Amino acid sequence: MKHVTYLVLLEKTPHSDWGVSVPDLPGCVAVAKTVDAALRRIHIAIEMHLRGMREDGDLPPRPKLRSVRPRLNKRSCEIYATVRVAA
Question: What is the reported pTM?
């Protein structure tokens, strides 16, 4: 089985849970109280998003290679990670 790796962005502010989005899959998001839970949820969300695209007859986009620079300040935290899913 072929696998694809997507870049994900995790963000948190002092009064929020961790929010995760996938820059290459607009609208594919997840939220959780911990980073680990957020990564598990986004993994499931990506698989569901890709399955829905295939069912609609759309080709899932190939992940774009990009360099990223996380930001950290007193009000928010931003982390980038990758998630590998079955294509």
Answer: 0.83
